[in-house]
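Q: Here's a chain of 214 amino acids. Please give me its 3D structure as tokens.
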Amino acid sequence: MIKKIDIAGIQLDNYSARECVMAVERMLNENAFHTVEEVNMDMVMLASSDEAVSDTLNRLDCSIITEKGILSAVGERAVGHRETDADDCFYEILRRLERNHKSIFLLAEGKKELQEIEQYVEKNFERLTIAGMVATEEFVEDEDAIVNEINAATVDVILSVMPSPKQEHFLSNNRGKMSVILWYGVGNCKFAKRKYSLLRSIQKRIRIYKLENH
């Protein structure tokens, strides 16, 4: 499988779920600021006309492709990549944050979205510490105040559910100001769709075993 693909001038990682999770785990052990985002076709299209989005996507330490259409657009087979891989990556990354006693800061555009991600994390990752959270709509045109909230919380990871391009604009404007190890942007995610049935849980445990023993 080709590890890097170019689409409309954007360099994206063509990683399997396992490779994405392993890359993030390595980042968590390094004393540096790293960026990871889930990337869909809408974001790639935005990048063609938005310099901040283009720059942010090209500078990601790890991009998680969420749509097979991106691979099809460059003529690559979706080997090791399915649309559900983003769910697998998300689950495994948060599970490892929980296991390694990391703290997270939740960043959303509105209070409703913030509540949804808070409830999702508390329900599915009970031992993962939420050290702070902000709805950016409460800090209109005052990104410095948001950065101050993040830094005051002294967290390891920012979990962003802001929609694109606002998510990428915020990261582009403030990447050098935030004292965290990892920025994980998942965009305007519908967390209700990331629930796990018993069957899916069993299948996931099998994948976890494979991830941890390769």
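Q: Can you summarize the key feature?
A: The CA atoms of residues 57 and 201 lie 31 Å apart.
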